[in-house]
């Protein structure tokens, strides 16, 4: 029994085994230390190596019992497996650890192919050492090779396709591409396939041969200059509206609005593309900085354009096929107009600036109100620009900003529904003192100077009360523009007298 044990140990513990053990487990521990992302792969490789060691020991036991042929076959099988594992770990050392340390980035497909070549070379070496004539093997197996190559033509096509894509730099990891109905970012390029992550979180796998045979569009690349991707927004407007006006309104709306992910340079543009049946077809073109959130950005631009055209009282030309019959009458029109006047008067009545007006005077102002919606991010009033109208906020929120030197600005306040702004410029002719930007979709009513003047001239004494209210609002704004305040009561009183004097001079009454 002792002699059998000594024979088995002698057969198992060959001179090269300590070196192989030290290399494999030393390399495995080194990779476990630095390649935490590949720990599972490394551990699996070491477990397989231990299994190969057990297989070699089984071959040693067979040798001890005199089964020489079986022992050699089993030994060669597990030696072959051990070598493949060592080649795999060496590949991880080179491509995942050493090359990144020297800032040498190799495509994943190159790593796969070179390791595969290493596997083939090791198999051929073991066959040669086993006494097999490789030349005769290749000669006699030509038919088998042809059959295998024919059966694996798709696999070979995918492998060659992936290699060519990498060598030509047609595609890189991180590129945004569109192929057929699928668009997304390339997450992985392997020897057989290319994986694309869509915006919906799905991973679509394309065989490399498909990419080689079909056209695809590279939307953007990590190395590409900004902005990334130009978008087209199509809309129709009736031919009765001058195209120059439509283009000017569309471009101004998107350029002035603070819409996230829309590039400022190159500037947005709008072109008249063609004429349809009674309408002109326009394309609003703008650039996305990031192609990822394309749909939310497009939606924000559409809302901005929609609000801008509504303010200009321009409607989209939309083909409708439904038939809607309404029996109109003078009574129905009067009822609709009465409801609209009541709604406008309710908005005016909620504003402290017009609290001293009678119902008749509110009715006069209500007739002059114009519905003016603003999309999120649109500039309603710009600091330093002359204005002849004020705005009443019915729904939504508006941010107040003070513009400073070197294009800096500071947030002052956020206006809520029921508040009025822009009154100083309308009543005194002074330039706007702050910039107001819609924080959300803001529904406003605009009151022009001519309608307000009609009420002031009919009852001039009301100007004094309005001047006092405006002065109080001015003092609140001054807190953000000055480092210190004087006596509040005197300040408001003096400011009210100043505003009242400017109103009288501006509207021409005593």
TrEMBL record:
Its annotated function is as follows: Mechanosensitive channel that participates in the regulation of osmotic pressure changes within the cell, opening in response to stretch forces in the membrane lipid bilayer, without the need for other proteins. Contributes to normal resistance to hypoosmotic shock. Forms an ion channel of 1.0 nanosiemens conductance with a slight preference for anions.
The record's subcellular location field reads:
Cell inner membrane; Cell membrane
Q: What is its quaternary makeup?
A: Homoheptamer.
Family of this protein: Belongs to the MscS (TC 1.A.23) family.
Pfam families reported in the protein's UniProt record:
cNMP_binding, MS_channel_2nd
Instruction: Provide the alphabetized UniProt keywords.
Output: Cell inner membrane, Cell membrane, Ion channel, Ion transport, Membrane, Transmembrane, Transmembrane helix, Transport
Keyword flag Transport? yes
- State if Transmembrane helix is listed as a keyword: yes
Q: How does it sit in the membrane?
A: Multi-pass membrane protein
Q: Which InterPro entries match?
A: cNMP-bd_dom, cNMP-bd_dom_sf, LSM_dom_sf, MscS_archaea/bacteria_type, MscS_beta-dom_sf, MscS_channel_2nd, MscS_channel_C_sf, RmlC-like_jellyroll
Source organism (scientific name) = Candidatus Accumulibacter phosphatis
The name this protein goes by in its record: Small-conductance mechanosensitive channel
Task: Tell me which residues make up the Cyclic nucleotide-binding domain.
Answer: 353-473
Membrane spanning residue stretches: 17-36, 48-71, 77-97, 134-152
Q: Which GO MF terms are attached to this record?
A: mechanosensitive monoatomic ion channel activity
GO cellular component annotations, sorted alphabetically? plasma membrane
